[in-house]
Amino acid sequence: MTALRQRMLEDMCLRGLSPATQRSYLGAITALARHFNTPPDQLTDGQLRQYFLYLRMEKQAARSTSTVVLCAIKFLFEQTLRRPIPFFDLVRAPKQRILPVILSLDEVRQILACLRTSHHHACLC
User: Fold this and answer.
1) Which domain of life is it from (predicted)?
2) Which residues, including other chains, have CB under 8 Å from residue 28's CB and lie 6 or more apart?
């Protein structure tokens, strides 16, 4: 285990992060370092920006995955390395808006027609 990894692990323990969060953060930082074949504390702002473009454009990572990676990098830089990350606002993926499913009047009538008792019918009306 590298000294940086050990220090980040200790920092996460001190901050009270759960073991699952610690594993996620360490996995995200490991993947980042492997992507550039560079220790994470030596990565430039440009490389970090490129990594988020890679996650979004090539890997088509979900917003939640990008958020975990972003939080892991933010923790590493701000808590362990004591370095600010200036591009923080640029990498957050837009939140998806999902419209609720609304049944048409005919679809509601079909569902109600399938009910056998009026008791069930009354519960849904």
Assistant:
1) Bacteria
2) 68, 69, 72, 73
CB atoms under 10 Å from CB of 79, counted, come to: 15
Residue type, 85: I
Query: Domains of the chain (ranges plus CATH)?
Result: 3-90 (1.10.150.130)
CB 69 within 8 A of CB 55: yes
Q: Which two tokens stand for residue 3?
A: 């000294």
Hey, CA dihedral for 29, 35, 38, 43, is it positive or negative? negative
Quick: pLDDT tens for 4-60. 999 999 999 999 999 999 999 999 999 999 999 999 999 988 898 899 999 989 999
Tell me what pLDDT residue 91 has.
Answer: 62
pLDDT at 2 over 60: yes
Q: Whole-prediction pTM value?
A: 0.71
